[in-house]
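Sequence in, structure out.
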Amino acid sequence: MNAPAPPVSEEELCSRAHAIAGLSLAELAADLGRSLPGDPRRAKGFVGQLVETALGASAGSLPEPDFQLIGVELKTVPVGANGRPTESTYVCTLPLEHEAGPTRWQESNVRRKLDRVLWLPVEAAPELPVASRRVGSAILWSPSAEEEARLRADWEELTDMVVMGRVAEITAHQGACLQVRPKAADSRARRWGVDEEGRRVRTLPRGFYLRTSFTSAILESRYAGLRR
Protein backbone atom coordinates (compact mmCIF):
# COMPACT_ATOMS: atom_id res chain seq x y z
CA MET A 1 0.00 0.00 0.00
CA ASN A 2 1.08 3.59 -0.54
CA ALA A 3 1.55 5.93 2.41
CA PRO A 4 -1.91 7.44 3.02
CA ALA A 5 -2.76 11.11 3.32
CA PRO A 6 -3.31 12.43 6.86
CA PRO A 7 -6.62 11.24 8.36
CA VAL A 8 -9.36 13.85 8.55
CA SER A 9 -11.27 12.31 11.46
CA GLU A 10 -10.69 10.13 14.50
CA GLU A 11 -12.90 7.48 12.90
CA GLU A 12 -10.63 7.32 9.85
CA LEU A 13 -7.53 7.11 12.05
CA CYS A 14 -9.00 4.31 14.16
CA SER A 15 -10.03 2.43 11.02
CA ARG A 16 -6.45 2.58 9.75
CA ALA A 17 -5.10 1.43 13.11
CA HIS A 18 -7.57 -1.48 13.12
CA ALA A 19 -6.41 -2.47 9.63
CA ILE A 20 -2.79 -2.94 10.70
CA ALA A 21 -3.52 -4.63 14.04
CA GLY A 22 -2.11 -8.15 14.07
CA LEU A 23 0.35 -7.54 11.24
CA SER A 24 3.97 -8.45 11.79
CA LEU A 25 6.54 -5.70 11.30
CA ALA A 26 7.81 -7.61 8.25
CA GLU A 27 4.30 -7.58 6.74
CA LEU A 28 3.76 -3.92 7.50
CA ALA A 29 7.17 -2.95 6.09
CA ALA A 30 6.52 -4.96 2.94
CA ASP A 31 3.13 -3.27 2.46
CA LEU A 32 4.88 0.11 2.58
CA GLY A 33 7.83 -0.94 0.44
CA ARG A 34 10.29 -0.61 3.30
CA SER A 35 13.14 -2.85 4.43
CA LEU A 36 13.55 -3.77 8.07
CA PRO A 37 16.86 -2.62 9.62
CA GLY A 38 19.46 -5.34 9.95
CA ASP A 39 20.65 -3.98 13.29
CA PRO A 40 18.05 -4.64 16.06
CA ARG A 41 19.32 -1.55 17.89
CA ARG A 42 17.84 0.58 15.12
CA ALA A 43 14.46 -1.13 15.29
CA LYS A 44 12.91 1.20 17.88
CA GLY A 45 13.07 4.36 15.79
CA PHE A 46 12.23 2.47 12.64
CA VAL A 47 9.06 0.96 14.12
CA GLY A 48 7.78 4.38 15.15
CA GLN A 49 8.42 5.81 11.69
CA LEU A 50 6.83 2.77 10.04
CA VAL A 51 3.62 3.14 12.04
CA GLU A 52 3.54 6.91 11.47
CA THR A 53 3.76 6.33 7.73
CA ALA A 54 1.10 3.62 7.73
CA LEU A 55 -1.36 5.82 9.63
CA GLY A 56 -0.62 9.10 7.80
CA ALA A 57 1.04 11.14 10.56
CA SER A 58 2.02 14.58 9.32
CA ALA A 59 3.73 16.55 12.11
CA GLY A 60 7.21 15.06 11.79
CA SER A 61 9.49 16.73 14.33
CA LEU A 62 7.19 19.72 14.87
CA PRO A 63 6.02 20.37 18.48
CA GLU A 64 2.45 19.49 17.50
CA PRO A 65 0.27 16.37 17.68
CA ASP A 66 1.33 13.83 15.03
CA PHE A 67 -2.04 13.99 13.29
CA GLN A 68 -2.29 17.74 12.96
CA LEU A 69 -5.70 17.94 11.27
CA ILE A 70 -7.47 16.16 14.12
CA GLY A 71 -5.19 17.00 17.08
CA VAL A 72 -4.20 13.41 17.94
CA GLU A 73 -0.75 12.31 19.10
CA LEU A 74 0.61 8.86 18.26
CA LYS A 75 2.48 6.87 20.88
CA THR A 76 3.94 3.56 19.73
CA VAL A 77 4.48 1.52 22.89
CA PRO A 78 6.88 -1.45 22.96
CA VAL A 79 5.40 -4.17 25.16
CA GLY A 80 6.86 -7.37 26.57
CA ALA A 81 5.40 -10.87 26.59
CA ASN A 82 3.17 -9.86 29.53
CA GLY A 83 1.65 -6.99 27.50
CA ARG A 84 3.21 -4.30 29.68
CA PRO A 85 5.34 -1.41 28.38
CA THR A 86 9.05 -2.19 28.44
CA GLU A 87 10.22 1.42 28.70
CA SER A 88 9.10 4.94 29.51
CA THR A 89 7.34 6.93 26.78
CA TYR A 90 8.88 10.10 25.40
CA VAL A 91 6.50 13.08 25.34
CA CYS A 92 8.46 16.19 24.31
CA THR A 93 11.59 18.20 25.06
CA LEU A 94 12.01 20.10 28.32
CA PRO A 95 12.68 23.83 27.75
CA LEU A 96 15.81 24.58 29.77
CA GLU A 97 15.51 28.34 29.84
CA HIS A 98 12.29 29.65 31.36
CA GLU A 99 11.90 32.19 28.55
CA ALA A 100 11.88 29.28 26.08
CA GLY A 101 8.75 27.56 27.34
CA PRO A 102 5.35 28.23 28.92
CA THR A 103 5.00 28.35 32.69
CA ARG A 104 1.28 27.48 32.71
CA TRP A 105 0.09 23.90 32.34
CA GLN A 106 -2.71 24.85 29.95
CA GLU A 107 -0.16 26.21 27.45
CA SER A 108 2.46 23.50 27.84
CA ASN A 109 3.64 21.16 25.11
CA VAL A 110 3.11 18.24 27.49
CA ARG A 111 -0.60 19.00 27.81
CA ARG A 112 -0.92 19.60 24.06
CA LYS A 113 0.77 16.30 23.27
CA LEU A 114 -1.27 14.28 25.80
CA ASP A 115 -4.68 15.86 25.27
CA ARG A 116 -5.66 13.14 22.79
CA VAL A 117 -3.45 10.11 22.18
CA LEU A 118 -3.61 7.01 20.01
CA TRP A 119 -1.67 4.36 21.92
CA LEU A 120 -0.42 1.56 19.69
CA PRO A 121 1.30 -1.40 21.42
CA VAL A 122 3.97 -3.28 19.46
CA GLU A 123 5.57 -6.53 20.59
CA ALA A 124 9.13 -5.98 21.80
CA ALA A 125 10.12 -9.12 23.73
CA PRO A 126 13.86 -9.56 23.08
CA GLU A 127 13.44 -13.24 22.21
CA LEU A 128 11.20 -12.29 19.26
CA PRO A 129 12.93 -11.47 15.96
CA VAL A 130 12.10 -7.92 14.89
CA ALA A 131 10.43 -9.14 11.69
CA SER A 132 8.04 -11.36 13.68
CA ARG A 133 6.90 -8.74 16.18
CA ARG A 134 3.28 -7.80 15.76
CA VAL A 135 1.30 -4.58 15.95
CA GLY A 136 -1.37 -4.61 18.66
CA SER A 137 -4.83 -3.07 19.00
CA ALA A 138 -4.87 0.71 19.28
CA ILE A 139 -6.41 2.71 22.12
CA LEU A 140 -7.73 6.26 21.59
CA TRP A 141 -7.36 8.05 24.93
CA SER A 142 -7.71 11.36 26.69
CA PRO A 143 -6.64 11.82 30.31
CA SER A 144 -9.34 11.71 32.96
CA ALA A 145 -9.59 14.62 35.37
CA GLU A 146 -7.63 12.61 37.94
CA GLU A 147 -4.93 11.62 35.43
CA GLU A 148 -4.55 15.20 34.21
CA ALA A 149 -4.27 16.48 37.79
CA ARG A 150 -1.42 14.04 38.45
CA LEU A 151 0.35 14.97 35.23
CA ARG A 152 -0.07 18.66 35.95
CA ALA A 153 1.36 18.32 39.48
CA ASP A 154 4.47 16.59 38.13
CA TRP A 155 4.86 19.10 35.29
CA GLU A 156 4.55 22.08 37.62
CA GLU A 157 7.10 20.66 40.09
CA LEU A 158 9.64 19.95 37.36
CA THR A 159 9.05 23.21 35.47
CA ASP A 160 9.41 25.21 38.70
CA MET A 161 12.84 23.65 39.20
CA VAL A 162 13.88 24.81 35.72
CA VAL A 163 12.61 28.33 36.37
CA MET A 164 14.55 28.44 39.65
CA GLY A 165 17.75 27.35 37.91
CA ARG A 166 17.80 23.92 39.55
CA VAL A 167 18.00 21.87 36.35
CA ALA A 168 21.07 20.00 37.60
CA GLU A 169 19.07 18.72 40.59
CA ILE A 170 16.36 17.09 38.50
CA THR A 171 16.56 13.29 38.47
CA ALA A 172 14.46 10.52 36.92
CA HIS A 173 13.21 9.65 40.43
CA GLN A 174 11.03 12.78 40.59
CA GLY A 175 7.44 12.76 39.37
CA ALA A 176 4.79 10.11 40.00
CA CYS A 177 3.63 9.92 36.36
CA LEU A 178 5.88 12.29 34.45
CA GLN A 179 9.65 12.25 34.75
CA VAL A 180 12.57 14.11 33.19
CA ARG A 181 15.48 12.25 31.62
CA PRO A 182 18.40 13.18 29.36
CA LYS A 183 17.43 13.29 25.70
CA ALA A 184 20.57 13.24 23.57
CA ALA A 185 22.42 11.04 21.12
CA ASP A 186 25.45 11.01 23.43
CA SER A 187 26.77 12.56 26.63
CA ARG A 188 28.64 15.29 24.75
CA ALA A 189 25.44 17.02 23.58
CA ARG A 190 24.75 20.30 25.37
CA ARG A 191 22.04 23.00 25.42
CA TRP A 192 21.79 26.34 27.15
CA GLY A 193 20.14 26.37 30.57
CA VAL A 194 20.07 28.70 33.58
CA ASP A 195 21.59 28.11 37.01
CA GLU A 196 20.31 29.34 40.39
CA GLU A 197 22.17 32.65 39.95
CA GLY A 198 20.45 33.29 36.64
CA ARG A 199 23.60 32.64 34.62
CA ARG A 200 23.39 30.78 31.33
CA VAL A 201 25.13 27.40 31.48
CA ARG A 202 25.63 24.48 29.12
CA THR A 203 23.81 21.33 30.18
CA LEU A 204 22.46 18.06 28.80
CA PRO A 205 19.25 18.31 26.75
CA ARG A 206 16.36 16.74 28.58
CA GLY A 207 12.88 15.49 27.80
CA PHE A 208 9.60 14.69 29.52
CA TYR A 209 8.77 10.98 29.70
CA LEU A 210 5.74 9.06 30.97
CA ARG A 211 6.58 6.38 33.51
CA THR A 212 5.85 2.79 32.50
CA SER A 213 3.47 2.50 35.48
CA PHE A 214 1.31 5.26 33.99
CA THR A 215 1.16 3.87 30.45
CA SER A 216 0.72 0.34 31.78
CA ALA A 217 -2.36 1.44 33.73
CA ILE A 218 -3.86 2.94 30.56
CA LEU A 219 -3.36 -0.26 28.58
CA GLU A 220 -4.55 -2.54 31.38
CA SER A 221 -7.68 -0.46 32.01
CA ARG A 222 -8.71 -0.60 28.34
CA TYR A 223 -8.03 -4.29 27.84
CA ALA A 224 -9.68 -5.19 31.14
CA GLY A 225 -12.79 -3.42 29.85
CA LEU A 226 -12.70 -5.42 26.62
CA ARG A 227 -12.54 -8.71 28.58
CA ARG A 228 -15.70 -7.98 30.52
